[in-house]
Amino acid sequence: VVRLRRLVGRRSVRAAEVAYVAEGPKLLIEALEAGVALESVYAAPGADPELLAKAVAAGARVFALAEGVMERVADTVAPQPVMAVLPMPSLPLRTLSRAAWVVVCAGVRDPGNAGTVLRAARAAGAEGVVFAETSVDPYNPKTVRASAGAIFRIPVCSAGSLESVLADLSSWGFCRLAAVARGGRAPEEVDLTARFALVVGNEAHGLGPRHLATVEELVSIPMAAESESLNVGVATGVICFEAARQRRAQLRSRERVGRA
Amino acid sequence: VVRLRRLVGRRSVRAAEVAYVAEGPKLLIEALEAGVALESVYAAPGADPELLAKAVAAGARVFALAEGVMERVADTVAPQPVMAVLPMPSLPLRTLSRAAWVVVCAGVRDPGNAGTVLRAARAAGAEGVVFAETSVDPYNPKTVRASAGAIFRIPVCSAGSLESVLADLSSWGFCRLAAVARGGRAPEEVDLTARFALVVGNEAHGLGPRHLATVEELVSIPMAAESESLNVGVATGVICFEAARQRRAQLRSRERVGRA
């Protein structure tokens, strides 16, 4: 239980133990459905026995916690009846070399925003998310929660400098795009049907000039007058789903050509 | 200060006093730029004197708080140096009768999500947001914060039943759309250039069948296989910005016709 609390609270402990925590039955169900490896599951009194049986069947060790113990461990105000410990995948960037398109977080600091980016990118069809620069730990419990299970289904790579990430992605044929609040082209004017990597920056400061110099194209979502900017999760969602829309349109026009 | 704390914490106090609170210099700057009425500003030691002078010039009474007082009032863990009290606008639904398009929250419960909806809707060009059913108070401090100032710039109406809201909007010529996780048409297949009202539902449960029966069209954002659903703020953003894209495309094609 001490270990559990440390895994919840500290990135360095997660890195050292190569494990992370997913809180709550909804996330455990998602993890089971995604078929990811489970190390162990901690259950407070009142946890669903059927769900625990499924976790055992999936290879997890299940530990029953006494009344009141979960309250001392959980990250949330209203603690969940179950908490899963999962081995942390450690994927090299090369995993993404054949992805259709990916999102690169460069300095996304808020764990909830990072989870929303994962959830939106995965739902739109992105095939990987990179956490570069000073981005939050993607295995932070708040990020895992906000991802709503997307973190179990999309390859996630942690990397250092954006420059080296983009150099690698570029060498694999990715067009490098960056989302900026203003000054770029509208998403529908950019070809998002080719292989691309979309860089999204820090919530408050966006991307610095040094980073903007390393991309081929700037993308700006046109906004109503006097709108400050968009939440990074929403901005990522809008551009990613515009990519999905362009890809659907391309597919439909190919089908028409095929039929003609 | 007791009043301030009560305004931060309780919807009923805000409703009784017809006032709400915006925390932090960024929101105060947004409020000043938007030109909304300010009742008063409370400043902790260290608040920017220039900003306070601007607030005075805008008609606000400014009160200096002693060291440590703001910490007892603020909603945030790291309290901000200034806190503004604003009169709460109370707009009848009729205010929106000539809007180009609007968003209707039906049971959006999370204050942060509600603020993200406001921010995304305003940035995309929506001309009003309605909070109906069991939706959170739009003047909750967390919602005000997540709206990033959008709440000062877009008309917000609080209403009771979705049914009566939609009946009124329909009588004013709004097409009634509802965002659902699956089963609807893709946003780009729906005409979003006409006057419409987009209903978005509860984070966990979406919209009930009773509500779905009162709309003309269901809209579903196509998602990758095994994606659960989208965050309500992201889903609203994706559909609203698709509306903005369709409107830009229409404008461009009209300009082409005009030139021809």
Q: Oligomer, anyone?
A: homodimer
Strand order across the largest sheet of chain A: 7-6-5-9-8-10
Low-confidence segments of chain A: none
Proportion of residues in helical segments of chain A: 25-40%
Apparent shape of chain A: globular
What would you call the structural class of chain A? alpha/beta
Using a beta-carbon cutoff below 8 angstroms, give the protein chain pair with the largest interface and the number of residues from each chain: A-B, 40 and 40 residues
Q: How much beta of chain A, percentage-wise?
A: 15-25%
Mind describing the biggest β-sheet of chain A? Answer: 6 strands, parallel
Write the layout of secondary structure elements.
Two copies of one chain form a homodimer.
Chain A: H1 2-9, H2 11-17, E1 19-23, H3 25-34, E2 40-43, H4 49-57, E3 61-64, H5 69-73, E4 82-87, E5 101-106, H6 111-124, E6 129-132, H7 141-146, E7 156-158, H8 162-171, E8 175-179, E9 196-200, H9 209-212, E10 217-219, H10 232-259
Parallel strand pairs in A: 2-3, 5-6, 5-9, 6-7, 8-9, 8-10
Antiparallel strand pairs in A: 1-4, 2-4
Helix pairs in contact in A: 1-2, 6-10
